[in-house]
Amino acid sequence: MSPDRALLESFPSPSRDRDYTIRIRTQEFTCLCPKTGQPDFATITLEYVPDLLCVELKSLKLYYWSYRNEGAFHEAVTNRIRDDLVARIAPRFLRLTADFNVRGGLCTSVRAEYRKPGWEPPPLVTVPPDPAA
């Protein structure tokens, strides 16, 4: 079964007038090594600032599951998921991080980002430490 972009569903962002971040993490991502056919396991962290749409969680889970029998290099699968999400929900910002489990003594972490043209993040707010603490 090939990963199916049609599995990704969306719904209208409830707060289109502001920037807010959604973070979704799964420790159950699996694909196959294209060289050996052995399973590769990863923790996928999706962080995004929605614009008009948000990704629906059950459809995201099913989309991730569709990779279980797909042979893919870590770099390729991370970028493909990023591309599919950007195409489906057109966020203001998206960061996808795939942390693959140890294989042959090597750990791989791949991060792919997207920034909508013209969008600038709000300035970072730093809160000084509490002097009473």
Summarize the structure.
The protein is α+β, with helices and mostly antiparallel strands. Helices cover 19% and strands 37% of the residues. The chain starts with 9 loop residues before the first strand and ends in an 18-residue tail after the last strand.
**Termini separation (Å)?**
55 Å
According to DSSP, the number of beta strands is 6
| Share of helix, binned | 10-25%
Task: State the secondary-structure class.
Answer: alpha+beta
Helical stretch count? 2
Q: Which shape, going by the Cα principal axes?
A: globular
How confident overall, as mean pLDDT? 93
Q: How much of the sequence is in beta strands?
A: 35-45%
Radius of gyration: 17 Å
Q: Which stretches of 5+ consecutive residues score pLDDT under 50?
A: none
Describe the strand arrangement of the main beta sheet, using strand numbers. Answer: 2-3-5-6
Largest sheet: 4 strands, antiparallel
Structural write-up:
- With 133 residues, the chain is an alpha+beta fold.
- It has 2 helices and 6 strands; from the N terminus they run ββββααββ.
- The longest helix has 16 residues, at 74-89.
- Helix content is 19%, strand content 37%.
- It has a 4-stranded antiparallel β-sheet with strand order 2-3-5-6, with helices on one face. The protein has a two-stranded antiparallel sheet with strand order 1-4.
- The mean pLDDT is 93.
- The chain has helices spanning 57-65, 74-89; strands spanning 10-12, 22-32, 39-49, 53-55, 93-103, 106-115.
- The chain is globular, with a radius of gyration of 17 Å.
